[in-house]
């Protein structure tokens, strides 16, 4: 596409792969593929900067400009999450206050998990139900008679996934910044996300117990990024805390209530429930278990809900402590049983009064995915091997997941040792941990096979692998794993015939001969050209045509072969369109010797 035809698009300073894909109306997998061809390995929830995003956009026919801050207002109103729109459409008299939903963001190791645990333990464990043993992705506390909901999924990913799906789940972001470390890259990224989602930020200035904590310096850094402390006349609450010694937690909760009070955090508890899937899994005895955050309306046991591509009647509902519930209102995280399939984290859910209508919605969504699936390239082992045999691929792309570093290393090393001249093993990604949705996305984008050692594929990964037709092979014995890859390669390396190059000739002139067609006057550059050999025509390095040498002449004589350095006349079967400078490669197939 020429530059003048490019559509204009505005992109923010940073954007997740998923959101970029949405904005340029491409599939996230296509975006990841383009990123990979540009040497950037990114997963769907990863944030890329403006420059990178602009390159992707331009490859997809868009001309990007940087979105300026004042314009964010205009752009964001178009992407107000559906549930917020529903609340906005409610009659003001029906709206009541609901608990603020808090998500915790910040740089790795700055103390997000410790802070969430500290709040949970100090505020919840003292309650009548004893300690909470199970993490379901969200919990609630009561502070000074008011409820506060915390999302405790690995904050960042959940938040970006939810935001990218237009379902900003949080009302307030707690930005954790370690006072000894100051502002780091993910701190900036978190600020960008929260600002773009127009969610107010409270800073938890953590680790103030440490000797090298430098709160004043960190505040200065934050002020430079637009988070000016209220004590300096700005409007950001910066609360010094220590998640470790549990200092300042009350101040932080106080700050949450203050910020919640000054923002309209409301919903209509009498509507049909809508909200977001926080996480979901399949349990052998209980079936599909999903944690939902109700964002408007109330959810009741027996309601029929549609969540992404799954649906079902709620058979049982629990709060985050595991206590059975019959009904739950806005801002409540609930665990439910009864869905037909495992929905994705970040999927929107909605209650349907009419079960039939709900089922039709799911059916339509499934059909749309199936259509996409049938046009998607296959990355099954069989298909890949067929491609190897057809000579279409020369690299076996692998993604390796193992339980511990101790097994990952020898696996990678042994795989690297497998020698083959023809097929190269390329390990795209090797990491410990279960096979995730992100691994499958990477595999789909790069036609890779996923190999797991002593790990499982989580349900989202399995589902996506099925849709994208990605092979996941699981092993628990290292030598079996290696043997299988070796066998596979050997299988591939044993085609009955292999291609043998004979020689190359350059076209110097073209002679039209009546009845015969065009004959190329050539010079043999290398090897020899043989009559009846297979032939390939390339022009400026690009393959133009594949055929056979139909006749070969040397000084008007019909000959069987012409060697390097000699001139000859070549005609090719079904090909007349020679141009001086074209290269004719002659080759043949020979039985492979083992
Ligand atoms: P996350 O990656 O942001 O979730 O960080 P973690 O909560 O896992 O904390 C990273 C490390 O910092 C852990 O070793 C914690 O024990 C430590 N840590 C967290 N909060 C504090 C704190 O307030 N003071 C001190 N001294 N260490 C902390």
Quickly list its features.
594 residues, alpha+beta, Arc Repressor Mutant, subunit A, Elongation Factor Tu (Ef-tu), domain 3, 30% helix
Précis, in short:
With about 600 residues, this protein is α+β, with helices and mostly antiparallel strands.
Overview of the molecule:
This protein is an alpha+beta fold and 594 residues long. The protein has 5 domains: 78 residues, Arc Repressor Mutant, subunit A (Orthogonal Bundle), CATH 1.10.10; 166 residues, 3-Layer(aba) Sandwich (Rossmann fold); 101 residues, Elongation Factor Tu (Ef-tu), domain 3; 114 residues, Translation initiation factor IF- 2, domain 3 (Rossmann fold), CATH 3.40.50; 94 residues, Beta Barrel (Elongation Factor Tu (Ef-tu), domain 3), CATH 2.40.30.10. The chain has 16 helices and 33 strands. It has a 7-stranded antiparallel beta sheet. It has a 6-stranded mixed beta sheet with strand order 7-8-6-9-10-11, sandwiched between helices. It has a 6-stranded antiparallel barrel with strand order 26-27-32-29-28-33. It is elongated. The two termini are 49 Å apart. About 7% of the residues have low confidence. It binds guanosine-5'-diphosphate. The site of guanosine-5'-diphosphate has 15 residues, from helix 6. The site of guanosine-5'-diphosphate (GDP) has 15 residues, from helix 6.
The count of DSSP E runs of length 2 or more, i.e. the number of strands, is 33
Main sheet specs: 7 strands, antiparallel
Read across the widest sheet, the strand sequence of neighbours is 17-16-21-13-14-20-18
CATH architecture of the largest domain: 3-Layer(aba) Sandwich
* Shape type: elongated
The CATH fourth-level homologous superfamily of the largest domain: P-loop containing nucleotide triphosphate hydrolases
Segments where pLDDT lies below 50 for 5+ residues?
69-79, 125-133, 154-167, 492-496
Distance between the termini: 49 Å
Helix content: 25-40%
CATH domain topology of the largest domain: Rossmann fold
How much is the average pLDDT?
A: 82
Q: Ligands in the structure? A: guanosine-5'-diphosphate
How many structural domains in the coordinates?
A: 5
